[in-house]
Structure formats: structure tokens, C-alpha cells
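Researcher: Next entry in the queue.
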Amino acid sequence: MTADFTERARAYLADARDTLDRIPVQVVEKIFHVLCDAYREDRQVILMGNGGSAALASHFAVDLGKGTAAAGRRRLRAVSIVDNTPVMTAYANDLSYADVFSEQIRALAKRGDVVFGISGSGSSPNILKGLAAAREVGATTVVLTGYQGGKAIDMADVTLVVPSDDMQHIEDCHLALTHLYMQAMREVVRESPITEPGRCQ
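Model: Structure for this entry, 201 residues:
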């Protein structure tokens, strides 16, 4: 059993490394600049997801909002819309679960904000409706997904498709990417003059 698990562990980690190596870096960089623009213009980053992606949306919101903070510098504003259980259940009960994000986005998002959808499949109905609502209000839309991108690939301004059909590796890569963005944006915030946002290079 131990030998079998050792081989399983080696194979899993090798597959994870291979998947990370095949992520399109130019798209990774494009999303970084979307976040930079949001910070420069004091826009809000709104995050959504389901299941494990909901957990990551909350995690990423904490990393962006708290993890990048520096004394005397303006904060990067980020919020996860998966965390308000009464609001989520109200929309799910009175309308449908497909509306739990779109209705919140209509209430919270403004033109120029960034709406970030995290979806392994890229086809969750509530993510798609959330992206549509974001476009209605003039927000920039970003999606982290996998497989072939799903329907979200045609609905977002920037879509990063993790090149894998394994949901666990897709989620591994999404987490690694959000940590990359947190570290990069932390530098941007820390290098900012006290009275103005930083430059993204």
C-alpha cells in the first residue's frame, strides 16, 4: 500500500507540474494588468465561484484585500460574493440558484470594476449569468477555467484556460495563480507612493 501511494504521489505531482508548465503565460500576464488597472483606478474586484471555486473566490478576496495591504498605501478593494449566505439563499429561493451572482453584481458592480469568475468547467449557469450582468454594467470580466473553457470562454474579456481535463489539477493551478497575483499585487501596492497607486510594469 505504501509503495502504491508513493507512486501515486509522484505521478500526481508530476502531472501537476506538467499542467502548470503548459499554462499560457501571456494570458497570466494580461490578467495581472487587469488587476493593476483596477488598483490604479481604485476599482473593486468582485469574485464568484461554486464549490471548491467558491472557497477559492473567498481565499483570493482575502489575499487581494488583506494580503496586499501596506501601511500608508491605498488598499486594493476585493470582495467575494459567495460569502453572504442570507443573500445567496434569498435569491436562490425567490428566483433560482442561477441568479445568485448576477443579482448581487447588479447591486454592487460599477463600470470599470473587475468581475472575476472561477469555474473549473466554465459552464456553470450562475457564473454565466454573473458574467452577463457584469457586462451590462460595464465591468471588465475575467474567468479562470479548465477543460476547453466552456461557455465562459465567449463571455469574458480575458479567459485563462488551464490545459487539463482533471478537475483537481485545474483547481491546483487556479490556487497557484491566485497566489502569484497576490504576491505581484503586494509589490505594486508596497511600491506605490503613499498618496497615489503604484505603477504596473
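Model: The chain has one domain: 2-190.
Researcher: Noted, moving on.
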